[in-house]
Amino acid sequence: MVIILIIMPYALLPSAETDNAQIIVLVAIFGALFTIVEYSSSSPSLVEFRDAPPFNRVRFSALFATVFCLSMIFKGVDSPGVLSEYFQNSGSVIGEAIDFPYSPVRLMVIMMPDGTDPVVIQHLRDAAGLSYLVSVFSVIWFVILLRLYRWPRRAGAFNVWINLPTFDPTAGGDVVKRLQRDGRVNVILGFLLPFLVPAVVKLVAALGTPINLDNPQTLIWTVSAWAFLPASILMRGVALSRVAQMIEVQRRKAYDRTGPTHSSIY
Questions:
Q1: What is the pLDDT of residues 103-133, one digit of tens each?
Q2: Using one digit for the tens of pLDDT, what is the confidence trace for 65-117?
Q3: pLDDT digits over 134-157, tens only?
Q4: Which UniProt keywords apply (predicted)?
Q5: How many domains does the chain have?
Q6: Calpha distance 16→9 (Å, rounded)
Q7: 18 assigned to some structural domain
Q8: 196-207 residues labelled b (16+ CB within 10 A) or e (exposed)
Q9: Does residue 205 sit within a domain?
Q10: 222 near 73, Cβ under 8 Å?
Q11: Distance between CA 72 and CA 130 in Å, rounded?
C-alpha cells in the first residue's frame, strides 16, 4: 500500500516526466521497507501508536484518499473520463465553496506569486478545497472511532513504550500533565498550520524563492502535505489526550483499591 501511494501520481498522470521514474521507485521501496521493519520489530523507533489501531490506518487512509483524488483531478486534464470529470467537478464545487476570505483555501490561492497562470490557480483551488475536506472528514472519523471502540484499549493493555517510542515518561514531571500539555499543543498546532503554511510560503517567496506549482506532481504532493500534516498532528493531539485520560482513570481505580497510603507510587 505504501508503494502504491508513492507511485500513484506518476502512474495515473500520462504527462508525467519519465526521468523521475527511478527516483520514485527508490522512494517507494524505501518507504515500504521502513514500514515493514518498523511494524515487524519488537523495539519501535519512530512510528507512534503502531500497536493501537486504527490510528495509523486512519491517517494513511486520509493521505491515500487525498493523493488519489488529486491525481484523478489532474489525470482528467490530459485524459478526460467519467471518473476524472467527477473528481474535477467535485473539487471545483468544494474549492469555490471553501474559498472565502481568510479561509485556508483562500490563503493557499493568494500565496501564489503575481502572474501565475489562472489555470494553475484554478487547479490549486480545486485541489486545496478537496484535500482540506478529506482531512477534516478524517479527523471527524477518527474521533467517532475513538468513541465507538473506546480507543486505545479495545483489547488488552496499552504499552506506552511501544505506542509512544519518542515519549520519555521518566523525563520529569507528572506523566498525565505532560501528555495533556502535548495533546493541547498538537491540537492547536494542527488547527493553525493550514493558515500558517501559506503565510510562511508567501514570506519565503517575498525573500526571492517563489514556489513553482506548474508541475502537477509537485502540486499534488504539496497540497497533500498541506492538508494531511495538520490533520495528522491534530489527531495525534486527540490521541495523546485520550491516553492521558486513560492513565488518569487507571490511577483513580488503583487509588480506590489501595487507598491514599500507597497512591504515591503512581
A1: 899 888 888 877 778 888 888 899 999 999 9
A2: 999 999 998 888 777 888 888 888 888 899 888 888 888 998 888 888 777 78
A3: 999 999 999 999 888 888 765 567
A4: Membrane, Transmembrane, Transmembrane helix
A5: 1
A6: 8
A7: yes
A8: ebbeebbeeeee
A9: yes
A10: no
A11: 12
Assess if residue 223 is contained within a domain.
Answer: yes
Domain extent at residue 249: 2-33+50-152+172-265
Q: Rounded to whole angstroms, how far apart are CA atoms 58 and 193?
A: 20
23 within some domain: yes
Instruction: Confirm if 106 and 132 have CB atoms less than 8 A apart.
Output: no
Please tell me whether the overall predicted TM-score, pTM, comes out greater than 0.85 for this model: yes
* Cell digits of residue 234: 491534530
202 close to 110: Cβ distance less than 8 angstroms: yes
| Rounded Cα distance, 123 and 81, in Å | 17
Q: Which three cell numbers stand for residue 264?
A: 504515591
